[in-house]
Amino acid sequence: MVFDSTSIDIDPRSGFCKSNSVFYSKRKPVNLPCNEFLNVTTFISSRPHNGKIAFIDASTGRRLTFPQFWRGVESVACCLSEIGVRKGHVVLILSPNSIFFPVICQSIMSLGAIITTANPLNTPQEIRKQMADSKPILAFTTESLLPKLSGTDLPIVIIGQHYNIFTKDFKIVSSLEDMMKKEPSGTRVKERVSQDDTATLLYSSGTTGVSKGVVSSHRNYITLVQTLVSRYSLQNGEHTFICTVPMFHIYGLGWFTTLTLASGSTVVVLSKFEIDDMLSAMVKYRATCLPLVPPIVLRLINHADTVKAKYDLRTLQCVLSGGAPLSKKVIQGFLEKYPMVTFMQGYALTESTGGGAYTDTPEESKRYGTVGLLWPNMEAKIVDPDTGEALPVNRTGELWLRGSSVMKGYFSNPEATTSTLDSEGWLKTGDICYINEDGFMFVVDRLKELIKYKGYQVPPAELEALLVTHPEIADAAVIPYPDEEVGQYPMAYVVRNAGSNLSESAVMEFVSTQVAPYKKIRRVAFVDDIPKNPSGKILRKNLIKLAASKL
């Protein structure tokens, strides 16, 4: 069912239906293709647009035109087919942002194979854990990241022109550069791929704090593309984006390996984020759109005078913020410093394939604190976590979402899938929200126990499990500690064993050697015991209040 203002049960102002307690999107519905056998690569490549340059490497200036890009996709797909990659096979991408990252993604998906991505900052142990779960048959990675795949015996394609085959530690089968040079073959195996087939397997901490593979379909990505192209009227290929958000994450993967290709937009790619590099690229390539995460938005505000004195940002039309909701103070501060730029933000999850809610105009963005109206065709419930009752307008509860961008489930984890997706297709987001009388959504808290550090998800349970392996730690709990620059960072409450003089720095060092940098413990407090409920669950809210009282 879509929003129908003529229905006597649906409030045209809020979109709330009294008869079933569902909120319906007030956005204009988006028509989705009904062809059952359609993969996202075919859908994107067949769309008409006026774009010329698809990707530019910000550091080298190397460019891929749209014809070069799609020829490269076909060449790489042919090579993968010859290697034996088939529909349903999982292929790992371990790489920083690159103009070739989207080539790899589209090549894999065109075969009906499945992408799984890993954060290049992750440790070899973290990557091996993901590989043990997803069981990839092939990996794409750079030469500098090869050591993180040491001992895995996985066939590897090197991203880059030159590679060394001097070591017996790696089974290198080719380079991406060589694959892209190969003439596409019309005889490769082409299997029928349906919209319901799996396209990606991205790892998210979900609502429980334990990393799980999110199974997203071609339909999910087709919905993402169709919705956002319609939202921004991007078909003319007139926009130039700066890509700073990671392509291994749904934010970057959704925007820069699918959406911009469908719209004909140009993407200037930074392999790593440096604010001066980003701003220089914006000036050099006359960027119009800048998707960001909140910590970078804050840096642009705090250093606005220096930024505007050094860089000519007159071509910049809009800034898009995702990853966490922004306060009224931050939004006002941005609009005061950059009055000619349209500021928009949104709400999404890996489990909803980047779909959820968004602000669409400057007027909507000035409704401070909101993450916007529901996506087109999206439905929502606000559910009391204790009673399960679906709540009306301006009542706070857990947000449930339903729509064609919602994931298929968690990979090989029926228990987690059942606890997150109900039998009617409702995704339990773990976020505490309310929807007001005008249909705008507000995120006020999290049921899920994730820490958001610079947009990265940090599961406390993972750090707690690591901490208690220390011989001098009897018990531990990890909470989010607020920080203006990064959003939140992990803080540990630690119970030392009797007689131990374990220091704060020793705890932090113990963790830092075993996890990715964004997961590091950055503050430690020692306590006599960790507060828990009768069933043994950590009462994290008590510790958050304790930390807040000492701010």
Explain what this protein looks like in three dimensions.
Residues 49-411 form the AMP-dependent synthetase/ligase domain. GO terms for molecular function: ATP binding; CoA-ligase activity. Keywords: ATP-binding, Ligase, Nucleotide-binding. With 551 residues, the protein is an alpha/beta fold. The chain has a domain at 451-549: GMP Synthetase, Chain A, domain 3, CATH 3.30.300.30. It has an 11-stranded mixed beta sheet. Strands 6-5-7-8-9 form a 5-stranded parallel beta sheet, sandwiched between helices. Strand 16 and strand 17 (356-358) form a beta hairpin. The protein is globular. It starts with 15 loop residues before the first strand and ends with a helix. The model has no long low-confidence stretch (mean pLDDT 90).
- How many E-type strands? 28
Question: Any idea what the CATH architecture of the domain at 451-549 is?
Answer: 2-Layer Sandwich
User: How many helical elements?
Assistant: 16
**Overall 3D form:** globular
Computed structural class: alpha/beta
Helix content: 25-40%
- Mean pLDDT, nearest integer? 90
| C-alpha end-to-end distance | 48 Å
Radius of gyration: 23 Å
**Could you state the CATH homologous superfamily of the domain at 451-549?**
ANL, C-terminal domain
% residues in beta strands: 25-35%
What is the name of the CATH topology of the domain at 451-549?
GMP Synthetase, Chain A, domain 3
Strand order of the largest sheet: 1-2-19-20-22-23-18-17-16-15-14
- Biggest pleated sheet: 11 strands, mixed
Unreliable stretches covering 5 or more consecutive residues = none
* CATH class call of the domain at 451-549: Alpha Beta
